[in-house]
Design brief:
The chain is α/β, with parallel strands linked by helices. The chain has a single domain, classed as Vaccinia Virus protein VP39 (Rossmann fold, 3-Layer(aba) Sandwich). It has ten helices and seven strands. The protein has a seven-stranded mixed sheet with strand order 3-2-1-4-5-7-6, sandwiched between helices. The chain is globular, with a radius of gyration of 18 Å. Bound molecules: S-adenosylmethionine. S-adenosylmethionine binds next to helix 2 and helix 3.
Length: 256
Protein backbone atom coordinates (compact mmCIF):
# COMPACT_ATOMS: atom_id res chain seq x y z
CA UNK A 1 0.00 0.00 0.00
CA UNK A 2 1.33 3.48 -0.82
CA UNK A 3 2.31 5.73 2.10
CA UNK A 4 0.04 8.74 2.72
CA UNK A 5 1.43 12.04 1.34
CA UNK A 6 3.56 13.77 3.95
CA UNK A 7 4.65 10.53 5.67
CA UNK A 8 7.47 9.64 3.26
CA UNK A 9 10.26 11.81 1.82
CA UNK A 10 9.09 13.90 -1.14
CA UNK A 11 11.10 14.36 -4.33
CA UNK A 12 12.80 17.74 -4.71
CA UNK A 13 13.65 19.90 -7.72
CA UNK A 14 17.39 19.21 -7.66
CA UNK A 15 18.29 21.72 -10.37
CA UNK A 16 16.51 24.66 -8.72
CA UNK A 17 17.74 23.62 -5.28
CA UNK A 18 21.32 23.67 -6.54
CA UNK A 19 20.80 27.30 -7.61
CA UNK A 20 19.12 28.57 -4.42
CA UNK A 21 21.04 26.57 -1.79
CA UNK A 22 23.51 29.30 -0.80
CA UNK A 23 22.45 29.36 2.88
CA UNK A 24 22.69 25.57 3.27
CA UNK A 25 26.03 25.53 1.43
CA UNK A 26 27.46 28.24 3.68
CA UNK A 27 26.35 26.41 6.83
CA UNK A 28 27.61 23.12 5.36
CA UNK A 29 31.08 24.56 4.85
CA UNK A 30 31.28 25.29 8.58
CA UNK A 31 30.00 21.84 9.53
CA UNK A 32 32.49 20.17 7.19
CA UNK A 33 35.26 22.03 9.04
CA UNK A 34 34.33 20.03 12.16
CA UNK A 35 34.99 16.65 10.53
CA UNK A 36 38.49 15.44 11.40
CA UNK A 37 39.78 13.20 8.59
CA UNK A 38 43.18 11.91 7.40
CA UNK A 39 42.00 12.14 3.82
CA UNK A 40 41.64 8.53 2.64
CA UNK A 41 38.43 7.59 4.42
CA UNK A 42 35.03 6.55 3.16
CA UNK A 43 32.50 9.20 4.19
CA UNK A 44 28.72 8.92 4.01
CA UNK A 45 27.01 12.21 3.13
CA UNK A 46 23.58 11.51 4.61
CA UNK A 47 21.20 13.71 2.60
CA UNK A 48 23.66 14.93 -0.03
CA UNK A 49 21.10 17.03 -1.90
CA UNK A 50 22.53 18.38 -5.16
CA UNK A 51 26.07 17.77 -3.89
CA UNK A 52 27.33 21.29 -3.21
CA UNK A 53 28.68 20.39 0.25
CA UNK A 54 29.72 16.91 -0.94
CA UNK A 55 31.82 18.60 -3.61
CA UNK A 56 33.70 20.58 -0.96
CA UNK A 57 34.36 17.37 0.95
CA UNK A 58 35.75 15.65 -2.16
CA UNK A 59 37.89 18.68 -3.06
CA UNK A 60 39.27 18.94 0.46
CA UNK A 61 40.17 15.24 0.72
CA UNK A 62 41.63 14.07 -2.59
CA UNK A 63 42.00 10.43 -1.49
CA UNK A 64 38.56 10.09 0.07
CA UNK A 65 35.58 8.12 -1.19
CA UNK A 66 32.06 9.39 -0.62
CA UNK A 67 28.70 7.68 -0.50
CA UNK A 68 26.26 10.38 -1.63
CA UNK A 69 22.91 9.23 -0.23
CA UNK A 70 19.57 10.98 -0.55
CA UNK A 71 15.91 9.99 -0.71
CA UNK A 72 15.17 12.32 -3.65
CA UNK A 73 15.95 10.92 -7.13
CA UNK A 74 16.02 14.48 -8.53
CA UNK A 75 18.62 15.54 -5.94
CA UNK A 76 20.77 12.46 -6.63
CA UNK A 77 20.58 13.20 -10.38
CA UNK A 78 21.74 16.79 -9.72
CA UNK A 79 24.55 15.48 -7.48
CA UNK A 80 25.64 13.06 -10.23
CA UNK A 81 25.98 15.99 -12.65
CA UNK A 82 27.84 18.20 -10.19
CA UNK A 83 30.17 15.44 -8.97
CA UNK A 84 30.83 13.71 -12.31
CA UNK A 85 34.50 14.84 -12.34
CA UNK A 86 35.19 12.71 -9.24
CA UNK A 87 34.34 9.50 -11.14
CA UNK A 88 34.49 6.29 -9.10
CA UNK A 89 35.28 8.14 -5.87
CA UNK A 90 31.55 8.72 -5.46
CA UNK A 91 28.85 6.08 -5.00
CA UNK A 92 25.25 7.30 -5.34
CA UNK A 93 22.47 5.78 -3.25
CA UNK A 94 18.77 6.68 -3.29
CA UNK A 95 17.56 5.68 0.17
CA UNK A 96 15.37 6.87 3.04
CA UNK A 97 17.17 7.69 6.30
CA UNK A 98 13.91 6.80 8.04
CA UNK A 99 14.52 3.14 7.19
CA UNK A 100 17.52 0.78 7.64
CA UNK A 101 20.14 1.86 5.10
CA UNK A 102 21.29 -0.42 2.25
CA UNK A 103 24.92 -0.22 3.45
CA UNK A 104 27.15 -2.91 4.96
CA UNK A 105 27.65 -2.78 8.76
CA UNK A 106 30.73 -0.77 9.81
CA UNK A 107 31.51 0.08 6.16
CA UNK A 108 31.94 3.87 6.51
CA UNK A 109 34.57 5.78 8.50
CA UNK A 110 32.57 8.95 9.10
CA UNK A 111 29.16 10.49 8.45
CA UNK A 112 28.51 14.07 7.40
CA UNK A 113 24.93 15.35 7.29
CA UNK A 114 23.85 18.92 6.63
CA UNK A 115 20.36 20.44 6.56
CA UNK A 116 18.70 17.01 6.34
CA UNK A 117 17.98 15.15 9.59
CA UNK A 118 14.98 17.31 10.57
CA UNK A 119 13.21 15.95 7.47
CA UNK A 120 13.16 12.51 9.13
CA UNK A 121 10.19 12.04 11.47
CA UNK A 122 11.45 9.32 13.83
CA UNK A 123 14.77 10.41 15.30
CA UNK A 124 15.02 7.36 17.60
CA UNK A 125 15.08 5.15 14.50
CA UNK A 126 17.19 7.63 12.50
CA UNK A 127 20.25 7.51 14.78
CA UNK A 128 20.11 3.70 14.80
CA UNK A 129 20.12 3.74 10.99
CA UNK A 130 23.15 6.07 11.00
CA UNK A 131 25.02 4.01 13.63
CA UNK A 132 24.69 0.71 11.74
CA UNK A 133 27.03 1.44 8.77
CA UNK A 134 29.48 3.53 10.86
CA UNK A 135 32.61 1.72 12.07
CA UNK A 136 33.36 1.79 15.82
CA UNK A 137 35.28 4.99 16.53
CA UNK A 138 33.80 6.67 13.45
CA UNK A 139 32.57 10.23 13.78
CA UNK A 140 29.09 11.64 13.06
CA UNK A 141 29.22 15.38 12.27
CA UNK A 142 25.83 16.87 11.48
CA UNK A 143 23.68 19.96 11.51
CA UNK A 144 19.95 20.23 10.92
CA UNK A 145 16.97 22.28 11.99
CA UNK A 146 16.51 22.22 15.77
CA UNK A 147 13.96 23.28 18.39
CA UNK A 148 12.48 26.67 17.43
CA UNK A 149 13.48 26.39 13.76
CA UNK A 150 11.39 28.39 11.27
CA UNK A 151 8.90 29.28 14.02
CA UNK A 152 7.23 32.08 12.03
CA UNK A 153 6.79 29.78 9.02
CA UNK A 154 5.23 27.10 11.22
CA UNK A 155 2.95 29.71 12.75
CA UNK A 156 1.87 30.83 9.26
CA UNK A 157 1.34 27.22 8.14
CA UNK A 158 -0.96 26.55 11.09
CA UNK A 159 -3.46 29.01 9.61
CA UNK A 160 -3.13 28.03 5.92
CA UNK A 161 -4.63 25.11 3.99
CA UNK A 162 -5.60 22.30 6.38
CA UNK A 163 -3.27 23.64 9.09
CA UNK A 164 -0.61 20.92 8.60
CA UNK A 165 2.60 22.48 9.93
CA UNK A 166 5.02 20.14 8.20
CA UNK A 167 6.85 16.82 8.23
CA UNK A 168 9.74 18.00 10.39
CA UNK A 169 11.29 16.97 13.68
CA UNK A 170 12.95 20.00 15.27
CA UNK A 171 14.57 18.32 18.24
CA UNK A 172 16.23 19.75 21.33
CA UNK A 173 19.93 19.15 22.09
CA UNK A 174 18.93 17.22 25.23
CA UNK A 175 16.57 14.80 23.44
CA UNK A 176 19.15 14.35 20.69
CA UNK A 177 21.87 13.46 23.19
CA UNK A 178 19.58 10.84 24.77
CA UNK A 179 18.75 9.37 21.35
CA UNK A 180 22.42 9.27 20.32
CA UNK A 181 23.37 7.46 23.54
CA UNK A 182 20.59 4.93 22.99
CA UNK A 183 21.83 4.33 19.43
CA UNK A 184 25.38 3.54 20.63
CA UNK A 185 27.15 6.90 20.29
CA UNK A 186 29.62 8.41 22.75
CA UNK A 187 31.68 11.66 23.00
CA UNK A 188 28.46 13.54 22.23
CA UNK A 189 28.09 17.29 21.85
CA UNK A 190 24.78 18.85 20.82
CA UNK A 191 23.85 22.52 20.76
CA UNK A 192 21.59 25.06 19.05
CA UNK A 193 22.48 28.32 17.33
CA UNK A 194 20.46 30.94 15.45
CA UNK A 195 20.93 31.51 11.70
CA UNK A 196 18.46 34.22 10.64
CA UNK A 197 18.42 34.53 6.85
CA UNK A 198 17.12 37.41 4.72
CA UNK A 199 15.94 36.99 1.12
CA UNK A 200 15.17 39.25 -1.78
CA UNK A 201 11.40 39.85 -1.51
CA UNK A 202 8.99 38.75 -4.24
CA UNK A 203 9.72 35.88 -6.62
CA UNK A 204 13.22 35.07 -5.24
CA UNK A 205 11.71 34.51 -1.77
CA UNK A 206 8.74 32.59 -3.19
CA UNK A 207 11.09 30.40 -5.23
CA UNK A 208 13.10 29.64 -2.10
CA UNK A 209 9.96 28.79 -0.10
CA UNK A 210 8.64 26.64 -2.95
CA UNK A 211 11.90 24.76 -3.47
CA UNK A 212 13.41 24.42 -0.01
CA UNK A 213 10.78 24.85 2.70
CA UNK A 214 7.37 23.87 1.36
CA UNK A 215 8.00 20.86 -0.90
CA UNK A 216 6.20 18.39 1.34
CA UNK A 217 3.20 20.74 1.61
CA UNK A 218 3.00 21.38 -2.13
CA UNK A 219 3.12 17.64 -2.88
CA UNK A 220 -0.22 17.29 -1.10
CA UNK A 221 -1.92 19.80 -3.43
CA UNK A 222 -3.55 18.85 -6.69
CA UNK A 223 -2.73 21.57 -9.22
CA UNK A 224 -0.03 24.12 -10.04
CA UNK A 225 -2.55 26.90 -9.32
CA UNK A 226 -3.22 25.53 -5.81
CA UNK A 227 0.50 25.18 -5.18
CA UNK A 228 1.26 28.75 -6.24
CA UNK A 229 -1.64 30.09 -4.14
CA UNK A 230 -0.25 28.19 -1.14
CA UNK A 231 3.26 29.65 -1.61
CA UNK A 232 1.77 33.15 -1.96
CA UNK A 233 -0.30 32.67 1.20
CA UNK A 234 2.73 31.60 3.24
CA UNK A 235 4.87 34.47 1.90
CA UNK A 236 2.07 36.96 2.66
CA UNK A 237 1.60 35.62 6.21
CA UNK A 238 5.25 36.19 7.11
CA UNK A 239 6.19 39.59 8.52
CA UNK A 240 9.22 39.87 6.19
CA UNK A 241 11.19 38.00 3.51
CA UNK A 242 13.18 36.43 6.29
CA UNK A 243 13.44 32.97 7.87
CA UNK A 244 14.43 32.48 11.49
CA UNK A 245 16.54 29.37 11.16
CA UNK A 246 17.72 27.60 14.33
CA UNK A 247 20.35 24.94 13.73
CA UNK A 248 20.92 21.82 15.83
CA UNK A 249 24.61 20.88 15.79
CA UNK A 250 25.65 17.29 16.46
CA UNK A 251 29.07 15.76 17.10
CA UNK A 252 29.25 12.12 18.19
CA UNK A 253 31.43 9.02 17.93
CA UNK A 254 30.22 5.45 17.33
CA UNK A 255 31.12 3.51 20.48
CA UNK A 256 33.59 0.61 20.05
C1 LIG B 1 17.86 21.08 2.43
S1 LIG B 1 18.43 19.68 1.56
C2 LIG B 1 20.12 19.58 2.11
C3 LIG B 1 21.02 18.96 1.06
C4 LIG B 1 22.52 19.12 1.30
N1 LIG B 1 22.97 18.33 2.43
C5 LIG B 1 22.87 20.58 1.48
O1 LIG B 1 23.29 20.95 2.58
O2 LIG B 1 22.72 21.33 0.52
C6 LIG B 1 17.64 18.36 2.42
C7 LIG B 1 17.89 17.01 1.78
O3 LIG B 1 17.41 15.99 2.64
C8 LIG B 1 16.90 14.96 1.82
N2 LIG B 1 16.01 14.13 2.62
C9 LIG B 1 14.85 14.50 3.20
N3 LIG B 1 14.31 13.46 3.85
C10 LIG B 1 15.15 12.42 3.67
C11 LIG B 1 15.12 11.06 4.09
N4 LIG B 1 14.12 10.58 4.85
N5 LIG B 1 16.12 10.25 3.71
C12 LIG B 1 17.15 10.74 2.95
N6 LIG B 1 17.21 12.01 2.51
C13 LIG B 1 16.23 12.84 2.87
C14 LIG B 1 16.18 15.70 0.72
O4 LIG B 1 15.89 14.89 -0.37
C15 LIG B 1 17.17 16.83 0.45
O5 LIG B 1 18.09 16.48 -0.54
Amino acid sequence: MADAPGTRPHDWDGTTYDRVADPMTRWGTNVLGRLPLRGDETVLDAGCGSGRVTEQLLDRLPESRVIALDASPSMVAAARDRLARFGARVTYVVADLGRPLPLEPASVDAILSTATLHWVRDHDALFGHLAAPLRPGGRLVAQCGGAGNIAAVQHALASIGDGWTGPWTFATPEDTRTRLEAAGFTDIETWLHDEPERFEPGEPFREYLRTVVLGAHLERLGSDAEREAFVDAVAAALPAAEIGYVRLNILATRAG
